[in-house]
Design a protein that fits this description.
- With 342 residues, the protein is mainly alpha-helical.
- It has 14 helices and five strands.
- Helix 3 packs across helix 13, helix 4 crosses helix 7 and helix 10 packs parallel to helix 12.
- The structure holds adenosine monophosphate and tryptophan (TRP).
- Tryptophan binds next to strand 1 and helix 7.
- The site of adenosine monophosphate has 17 residues, from helix 1.
Amino acid sequence: MTEVPHPRRVFSGIQPTGGLHLGNYLGAVKRFAELQAIDAEPIYCVVDLHAITAGWAGRTQMAEDTREIAAAYLACGIDPERSILFNQSQVPVHAQLGWIFSCVARLGWMNRMTQFKDKAGKNAEKASLGLYAYPALQAADILAYHATHVPVGEDQRQHLELSRDIAIKFNNDFDAPGFFPVPEPIIEGVATRIMSLRDGSKKMSKSDPSDMSRINLTDDADTIAKKIRKAKTDPEPLSETLDGLADRPEALNLVTIYAAFSGQTPAQVMVEHGGQPFSAFKPALADLAVAKMDGIADAMRRYQSDPAEIDRILSKGADRAAELAEPVLKQTYEIVGFIPRG
Ligand code: AMP
Ligand code: TRP
């Protein structure tokens, strides 16, 4: 087989395990929407198969959570005419290719995954096999489309590294040089790791028990302003320059959020706001956040009030996704030597 370079193709996914927060928005979805101006037909998936690796929310909740993420994608500007938007379980290729990749990935690789360790907690014996295999399925999500670029937040760097290793090892072990592209993470911009508003050493996360630790996409203007006003900070005013924030993670996080919303670098934000007390900086940040998030919560509610329309969009996206993924699976099976049904 001769190696041909793979054309650029963007893929990313989000788990339907509860509502999205500002970290997901600034670190992922906002950038997914922006890529539509650069990339033809990026693929954005609601990864429902992944969502059951660490527990089941219940039948109704599962479907609701999936529609909520779809609504969030749409409300944040993902346009189903320009992107492929669908939920993973509608395209069986993900699970089929995921199996093959489970046979490519090594136990030693999986054992290094920090997300598994975090999610499995102290009693890893009780974690599901699916949680362990999660990164192999993630590799399948990406490689089923021969995707070359994957926009994600910093916390996904290790999983992306594993996807790269899987692509390389498959191509090598199954004597198919260049068949799968080696995908590149796109971890760019200032907001690749937004921290909790209550603890600057922890990332903002859906699983944090304190709702005050995060700004949800569904929060109204008053709630957003209140959460910023109450965000943990130290008593000192902002330093004059960015260097002065090196050991002040909570302050740095607020400056980072400001920068992400205003399209500036954190250093530029400091030119304008350096030296200010938080009693001045927090209201400025709250105004900016409210202005920039204006309309997202309402748009989400509008989409969610019409679940049938969301389902139509997802099905249409899944049809297109299957069109792309099925030939890749067929070729993969041929490479492995599986005899097809005649
Ligand atoms: P998840 O909600 O874990 O499925 O994550 C969805 C996307 O949001 C992934 O690309 C994550 O890397 C990104 N993400 C999650 N939390 C944060 C955060 N605190 N800061 C920046 N990006 C994040
Ligand atoms: N593991 C990712 C997360 O927790 C979600 C995900 C699943 C994903 N499959 C993917 C991200 C493929 C990018 C590409 O955020």
